Amino acid sequence: MIMRIVCLVIGYLCGLFQTSYIYGKMFGIDIREYGSGNAGTTNMLRTMGTKAGLITFLGDVLKTIAAVLICLAIFYRSDVNPELLQLIKIYAAAGAILGHNFPFYLGFKGGKGIACTAGMIITLDPTMVAIGLVIFFGIFFTTHYVSLGSICLYISFLIETIVMGYLNYGMFKSITPGIAIECDIVVALLTAMALYRHRQNIVRLATRTEKKTYLTKKNKETEGEKQA
Question: Between 44 and which of 5, 56, 147, 169 could a Cys-Cys bridge form, CB atoms 3.0 to 4.6 Å apart?
């Protein structure tokens, strides 16, 4: 239990590095006062352009990976049970997502945690990375809805976690059913949080008023569309 709490706390502290907010302040703006008001990659992409969006994405991915590496450095031993390593990764990354979404010094008004989740997946399993890339970019380049790609990414992540745990495959190889279920629960809670934070996007997707995002041209809000 102590290990889990420590990993969550360290992850949360790493997640407080709010890339979009810090980058925006370098140019004299508070990203939360522009566009959707969300301190994340998509709003940076729409507000400040592709370069700012990519920097934000990479920063949020890397801070999650950093949280995992720090926790592994603290708790790793040559004789450590392999299943504990996966728990360390899960809880450290979950903490980073919480820190990103709810930074205390910004009034708990952060992002939606998708880039951080990408960092989490990278630390867990290469198969998940491949599937995640296909799902997110397949949907994004087809529809240009970042929110739809993000939602589908999270749902697929949860399904993959459950299936791989059941099959004792990939990251769940040699892991007991109890630990696999615990990982499923953590990912399920993160998925529920992601869906809740995308609730307005879901409504706009259903009503076809969600704003589209483009990488190679200016993101202009077309008539009848609302800011995400």
Answer: 56
Q: How confident is the model at residue 47 (pLDDT cuts 50, 70, 90)?
A: confident
Summarize pLDDT for 215-224 with one digit per residue, the tens: 765 554 443 3
Q: How many residues does the chain have?
A: 228
Q: Is residue 191 part of a domain?
A: yes
Kindly report the number of other CB atoms within 10 A of residue 156's CB atom: 17
Look at the chain and report how many structural domains it folds into.
1
- Mutual angle of helices 114-124 and 50-75, in 10-degree steps: 40
Cβ–Cβ < 8 Å for 90, 6: no
Q: Does residue 192 form part of some domain?
A: yes
Model pTM score: 0.89
SS3 97: helix
Q: What are phi and psi of 208, to 5 degrees?
A: 60, 35
122-140 exposure pattern, b = at least 16 Cβ within 10 A, e = fewer = bbbbeebeebbeebbeebb
| 80 is a domain residue | yes
The one-letter amino acid at 55:
I
